[in-house]
Design a protein that fits this description.
By secondary structure, the chain is of the alpha+beta class. Among the domains are: about 1-30; about 30-115, no CATH class. Helices cover about 35% and strands about 10% of the residues. Strands 1, 4, 5, 6 and 7 form a 5-stranded antiparallel sheet that branches. The chain has a two-stranded antiparallel sheet with strand order 2-3. The longest helix has 26 residues, at about 1-25. The N and C termini lie far apart (about 50 Å). Mean pLDDT is about 80; it is low at about 1-10.
């Protein structure tokens, strides 16, 4: 009985090793992604690159349509999930075309870092205590309950990964994708506030936010506003629509589920 068990374990181990070797050989064969799957992928890739799905800078539009009923209510914007998909798309394209330099992947990642991840200079006066990383702002069911008060005394838990993240990124400010960009300056905040990143064609790419007013705030009720307030004395800009504060703020939103 013991010998049979040993034999079965040995066979399972050998089979597992064979499967691993076969998988390794499959993944390292540049021709394994072939036939109809490769053709369909290249068709999709070329369609995205030639049919108005990308801006002049190469940023993915959330939608080609200019009016949609979704969290993003028009087609002049880009989202973190859009750039995440583009990074995957370019990596797959480099792989199946045997581009060993992965130049398309690197270009897509550079777009991500340039436009979607706020640099440290766009997070001025950043103050963060990992043992008390946040203050609580209550969410209300009714829009009329806003702006909401900041509760500085509400208990919050510590941030257990702050030191490892700052060590990995080499910066003390958050290294996260902001979820929503107006990449045509459709709302005019780039021109009015002189904020955002100057793109080609005299356009400005502006990080924006929506949905700050609780669960009953619909797509058509949300106040689409810039993520960076201008620090102008005597003007509160958008912050006091949502929070009981008069200090100009920058507000970025990370959507890790996307």
């Amino acid at each position: 009985m013991g010998e049979d068990i040993f034999t079965m374990k040995t066979i399972k181990t050998i089979n597992k090793k064979i499967l691993i070797l076969l998988l390794f050989a499959f993944l390292n064969n540049s021709n394994n992604f072939c036939g109809i799957y490769k053709d369909k992928f290249l068709e999709l890739y070329n369609n995205i690159h030639t049919n108005g799905c990308l801006s002049h800078e190469g940023l993915p539009y959330h939608s080609r349509e200019k009016r949609i009923v979704e969290a993003t209510d028009y087609g002049h914007c880009s989202t973190s999930e859009g750039i995440s998909f583009l990074i995957w798309l370019e990596a797959m394209y480099d792989y199946i075309t045997n581009n060993t330099s992965f130049s398309n992947l690197k270009k897509a990642w550079n777009l991500c870092e340039t436009y979607y991840i706020p640099p440290s200079q766009d997070q001025p006066n950043f103050a963060y205590n990992a043992s008390k990383p946040a203050s609580v702002v209550s969410e209300h069911k009714l829009l009329t309950r806003y702006p909401s008060a900041v509760d500085q005394n509400a208990p919050v838990g510590p941030d257990p990964i702050y030191s490892s993240v700052t060590s990995a990124t080499g910066r003390s400010t958050p290294y996260l994708l902001h979820w929503y960009l107006d990449i045509d300056d459709w709302l005019g905040y780039g021109r009015t506030y002189s904020i955002g990143i100057l793109g080609t064609g005299n356009r400005r790419i502006v990080k924006t936010n929506t949905f700050q007013l609780g669960p009953n705030e619909s797509t058509w009720e949300t106040i689409h506003h810039p993520s960076f307030d201008k620090n102008t004395p005597g003007q509160n800009f958008y912050v006091d629509l949502f929070v009981q504060s008069i200090s100009p703020q920058w507000r970025y939103t990370s959507a890790p589920d996307a």
